[in-house]
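Hi all, posting the design record for the shared folder.

TITLE: backbone redesign
STEP: 1 of 1
STRUCTURE INPUT:
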């Protein structure tokens, strides 16, 4: 008898293992390889159907605090986390909600829209990733959006696009929006990015919409422009005045060779002739050259030093001539005095 009973139970268990288990009253169906909740014909390993939130994850208790779609309180003493997937009231969105540990409302924290846009801190993302932080006065010491931490010595945030064709458009940028009196973003005041001309150039710029230019620019060759996006062949080009306490210029030489014994000093007559012909001192650039090309500060300082040292030599020579004339005049005066006495 026992053997017959065991055989019947074994056969029943085998039949149950390969049959569909369905509870129409609760809308749950379990087949041999699929589970359906809210549907009797699950099309995936797990399918949850219905118009309300798909998943509630509470704080290890029996019920969630609030229904995030209706706002109805389920249990005012419990917090919850809710995941809403493809509910009919919100289209094909994938939404994540949380609430305080005890009581309070349920707030949406992140959403993936049916268009594939992800919003963190906002429910209407218009880009592939939109993040909105708090930035309130009470937490000005903390970042409004995110901290980036790396495991090793550096952390990277990479921004780019999918254009790989050489010479194609490869512009990428970070935009900083200003706010109007109502606290709404109204325009991009500042922009940081690369390829300001969108011509496939590996440059870097900081752009001001108000000024309608790039106050700071680094070309693909490493030349820097401040107030200009055209530094040309200069390592640093500044369109405007510079205020500083000191300028140190590396020099390859200096004008002290003028004092060398073998240096041949031009005569003042030669200097006069050059000035009459060229209307400037020798070695000095002309007015036209200065207006066209500017001046090399280090080079012009060297030339001026050379001219000052030459002028010093001329003064020394004139002093010697003057002393010699005085001495000669003194001898003449002595002779004249002796002649008068005789």
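Okay, here is what came back for every position:
SEQUENCE:
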């Amino acid at each position: 008898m026992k053997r017959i009973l065991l055989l019947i139970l074994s056969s029943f268990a085998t039949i149950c293992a390969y049959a569909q288990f369905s509870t129409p009253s609760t809308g749950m169906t379990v087949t041999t390889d699929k589970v359906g909740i809210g549907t009797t014909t699950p099309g995936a390993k797990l399918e949850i159907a219905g118009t309300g939130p798909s998943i509630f994850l509470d704080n290890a208790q029996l019920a969630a605090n609030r229904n995030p779609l209706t706002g109805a309180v389920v249990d005012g003493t419990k917090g919850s986390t809710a995941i809403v997937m493809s509910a009919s009231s919100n289209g094909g969105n994938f939404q994540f909600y949380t609430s305080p540990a005890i009581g309070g409302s349920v707030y949406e924290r992140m959403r993936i829209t049916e268009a594939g846009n992800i919003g963190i801190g906002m429910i209407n993302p218009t880009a592939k990733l939109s993040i909105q932080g708090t930035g309130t006065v009470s937490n000005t010491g903390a970042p409004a959006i995110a901290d980036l931490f790396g495991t090793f010595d550096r952390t990277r945030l990479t921004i780019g696009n999918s254009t790989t064709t050489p010479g194609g458009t490869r512009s990428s940028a970070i935009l900083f929006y200003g706010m109007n009196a109502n606290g709404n973003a109204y325009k991009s005041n500042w922009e940081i990015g690369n390829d300001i001309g969108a011509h496939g150039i590996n440059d870097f710029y900081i752009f001001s919409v108000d000024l309608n230019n790039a106050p700071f620019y680094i070309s693909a060759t490493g030349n820097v422009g401040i107030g200009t996006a055209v530094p040309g062949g200069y390592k640093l080009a500044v369109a405007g005045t510079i205020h500083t306490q000191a300028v140190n210029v590396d020099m390859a030489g200096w004008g002290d060779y003028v004092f060398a014994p073998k240096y041949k000093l031009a005569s003042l007559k030669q200097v006069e002739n050059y000035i009459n012909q060229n209307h400037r001192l020798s070695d000095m650039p002309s007015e036209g050259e200065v207006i066209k090309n500017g001046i090399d500060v280090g080079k012009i300082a060297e030339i001026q030093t050379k001219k000052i040292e030459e002028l010093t030599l001329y003064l020394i020579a004139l002093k010697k001539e003057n002393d010699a004339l005085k001495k000669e005049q003194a001898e003449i005066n002595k002779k004249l005095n002796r002649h008068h006495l005789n």
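COMMENT: The CA atoms of residues 123 and 215 lie 35 Å apart.
Let me know if anyone wants the other runs.
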